Amino acid sequence: MRRILHIDMDAFFAAVEEKRNPALKEKPVVIGGRGDPSRRGVVATANYEARKYGVHSGMPLRTALKLCPGAFFLPVDYDAYAAVSRQFKNVLLAITKTMEDVGIDEAFLDISTEPDSNETIVEKIKTGIYERTGLTCSIGIAPNKLLAKIASDMQKPNGLTVLTEKDIEHRLWPMPIRKLHGIGPRTEEHLKAMNIGTIGQLAELPLDTLIRHFGRSYGQYLYDAARGIDDSPLVTHREPKSFSRETTFQEDVKNWQTIARTIAWLTKEVVYDLASHGYCARTVTLKIRFSDFRTITRSSSTHETVGREEEIRRLAFSCLKRVDLTGKKVRLVGVRVGNVKARVEISSHH
Question: How far apart are CA 322 and CA 337, in angstroms?
Answer without folding.
Answer: 17
